[in-house]
Amino acid sequence: MAFALRRARQHAGRLSLIALVVALLVAGIGGIDAVAERMLAEGASRVFTDAEPGARTIRVVADEASDAAAQDEAVRREISAAFAGERTVVSRRASADVELAAAGGSGPSLGMLDDDRVPDLATLAAGTWPRTNSEIALSVAAAERLELGVGDTVPLAGDAEGTELTLVGTWTPDDPTDPAWLGDPAVVSGESDGSIGPALVAEGALNAYADTVTVIWEIALSRVEPADIPALQSALVTLRSLPEAVDPRNEHSTGIQGDLGDTLQRLGAALATTRGLHVAPLLILALLGALVLGIVLSSQTDARGEELALLRARGASVRRLALAAAAETAICAAVGASPAVAVLAATTGVTAAMAWTAAGAIGFAALAAALFTVRHVVGVRPAAERSDAGARTLAALLLPTGIVVGIAALSAWQLFALGAVVRDDGTPEPLAAAAPALLLVAACALIPVAAGPLAAGAERLLRRTRGIAPILPLRQVARRMGGVAVAILCLALAAASVALAATAPVVAGRAEQRALTTLLGGDVRLISESAIDVSADTASSWSGVTTAAEILDTPLTVGADTGVLVAGPASAVGFGGHRKGDGGPEIDADVTRRLADRLDAEVGTAFAAQIRFVPRPVTVRIARIVDIIPGAGSGLAIATTPEELRAADVDLPANELWLRSEHPTSTAEQLRAHATQPVQILTAAQVSAVPVTSVATRVLTAGALLAALLGVIGFIAATSAMNRTRRGEERVLLALGLAPPRRRALRTGEGAGLAVYAVVAGGAVGAGIAAAVLPITLGAGA
């Protein structure tokens, strides 16, 4: 033991460096992984919470059966089977529309609601909640529309003619966007599709006034964890068979509603994207850590050359020397890993990545120390450097580089062919998601491979110049590719990581803006099932609203394909065409590149299309071919103006409203208060996955900082080790008349040249990959 301590003390600097590198690896990989997973969970929860009300639940809708209890039991049984083991909350509500009596006959319909959750979702403004069949509680907005107050009576018409209901209370919703309200605009405005309400009734009272009662079983998730998403998506697929199981003859019009599946798919795509980018810093840190440990351990073994030879001469076996080196290195690595694990365990908790990183780093260091010792003791070392050493080293580098490049090319092909990181069925594609990380490593691996030929070529061009510089440094780089390659690779990986992290936020912002333009057309988008009941002029007068545009968004059939027609002001839909004035009821329109390719058309081409609710086909002439159309995206779509449609005798009312607003949230609340038709009101919060995808940029930044530190350590260690192997050149250079300052200047220039080459090439690689790949992967941001 004392002998081992004396041996270790002689190399305390290198052993301390091993401990430091292992600590950085464990803290970096383990910490980034743990923090990223926590942020992903928080981001997924936020995305789900901010989603549009109808996109947070899935609902089973049916007409109430004569045996309501048996129907409820059957539906709940199928729901339980589909979501086995998942955290769900199933709620039942019943509703019906009844006619109110008026002086001239029947009046407006009253939307009646039987839902025991309402007292927990709303606050009484006056009165009490209904307790008997003859009592109702109206929302404040509905009571104002009917001009009723607490204590007034409401006469019914139709089958319940002569019956009067007493208004015993008025209430206001605590949160109109709560999924329990099912996005019903009447909750705020008091009216939905001509029905006034909601009017809460006592439990079981609906059957006394209505022949047909609609029952909705709402399936809400108690919480959403990233790990649960695949199982939830599978449960939704299973749930689609529920109507056939509980209502095989469709006697009760049983169906499934809700866009929870779309939300889960958006979350799954965002998580796949973020985890794919998450791989990049972890993979680079692992590679840099392995390279730095290898450099330091190799240098330490070389420094102990005489000591190992002496111990071997005194009878020490190769096995004993290897085990001693492994044990010494493992202890130092464990000393470095222990505080890192302790700090992470106290702050983020122990994770599998942390444990595997610590064990892997200790095991790798110990194994590398043993292998380097065995190679040094039993290996045959060349007496002199051969003139073709650089070429032989280059050939040896090509094989591993080719393997890495091949894997990265396959990943890139998968990403570009798919155009996303998820398949058509919504499941993640791991190989495509990992493309940025694999491409970064592959491109960085090519940088040192290219250094030798570039240095050799430059040296040939400069041979006829006078002086030994820069010919001698270039020749050294070309011939000593082993140490040079490792030094360049360390710094190139670090520079590429920094460039990727610096470029990612810019690319992510552009991708997000593109996605929001596709999905919203502005800051707030109102989508109605019929003509909008809020005009652009009215919305433009609201505080914070800068522009408002009335939009027609309707299906369009071209041949056997179904697309989308978007018509609105040219500034809103990006329309760049104009009337040619050459006669004929043609519609000038912008078309997406995908539609133009499908039609094999170009600018000026005319084609026939059928617009929904228009009795005859219309002729569309291509004014421009664009990549995306606001509100429709890059699919099969066209954009034009209402003037173009009217000129072709197409007169359809706008069914959407696109708003630019400084305060999207408050503008959405105003729209909800004015809506009297079933609508969707979308803002960036409802359609964006930024709370999840933004984790990637933060992870890349943290990884880049650690990669920069490890890269600099590795470069310095590699160049120092390379310089120690060239001490025999000192006499030769001295004989050539080069004084020590001149020799140091040559070495400094050589190192600076390598550093500049590695940083510039690595930075270009990182920025190029970010520009080429991130727009596709971050397209899942919305």
TrEMBL record:
UniProt KW Transmembrane helix keyword: yes
Superkingdom to which the source organism belongs: Bacteria
Keyword annotations: Membrane, Transmembrane, Transmembrane helix
Membrane-spanning segments: 279-300, 321-347, 353-374, 394-413, 433-456, 484-508, 699-721, 752-776
Protein name as annotated: FtsX-like permease family protein
Organism: Microbacterium arabinogalactanolyticum
